[in-house]
Amino acid sequence: MGPVLEFGDRSIRHIYILTICLTVVIAAVLLVFKRLALPSFLIGSAISLSLFWSLEFAVRRLVQPGKTKRTKYLLGFIAIGKYILLGGLLYLLFKMEWMNIYALAGGIALVQGAIIIKAISLMVSILSNKDSNQS
C-alpha cells in the first residue's frame, strides 16, 4: 500500500518553516544585489505570513461541525476586516516613495510559493514510492 496523501498540522508547520527559510535566503540575495528592495520584500513576506496565519487561526477556531450561524457571520466579519485592513495597509505602502512594488509582490507571493513547493514534494514522494513498489 502506498503513502497516504495527508495535509495536516505537520504540513502547515512545514509551510511556515519553508516560507521563513525562503525569506531568509531571498533576503540575503537582495542584501547583496538589490539592497533598496529588501525592506519592501520583508514587508511583503510579513504580510503574506500574517494572512496565512489569520486564515489558519480562523479555520481552526471557527470551522467546526455543528457550529451556529453566528460563527459563519463571525468568520465573514474576520475575513472582511482582514481585507479592509490589508487594503488600507497597501494603500499607505504604495504612497511611500521608497517602496519597491515588485519586491513587495514577491514577498506576498512567498507563502503561495512554499505551498507549491510542498505540493511538488508530496507529488514526487508519492510518485517515487509508486515507482519503487512497481519494481
Note down, in words, how this protein is organized:
- With 135 residues, this protein is an all-alpha fold.
- 81% of the residues lie in helices and 0% in strands.
The dominant shape is flat
**Could you tell me the number of beta strands?**
0
SS content category: mainly alpha
What do the pLDDT scores average to?
Answer: 84
Low-confidence residue ranges: none
Between the first and last Cα atoms, what is the distance in angstroms? Answer: 14 Å
Oligomer: single chain
* Fraction of helical residues: over 70%
The major beta sheet can be summarized as:
none
Q: Which band does the percent of strand residues land in?
A: under 5%
Task: Return the string of H and E elements.
Answer: HHHHH
| Computed CA radius of gyration, to the nearest angstrom | 19 Å
List the helices and strands and how they pair.
Blueprint: H1 9-33, H2 38-62, H3 69-95, H4 101-108, H5 110-134
Q: What are the defining features of this structure?
A:
about 140 residues; about 0% strand; flat
Question: What can be said about this structure in brief?
Answer:
This protein is mostly helical and 135 residues long.
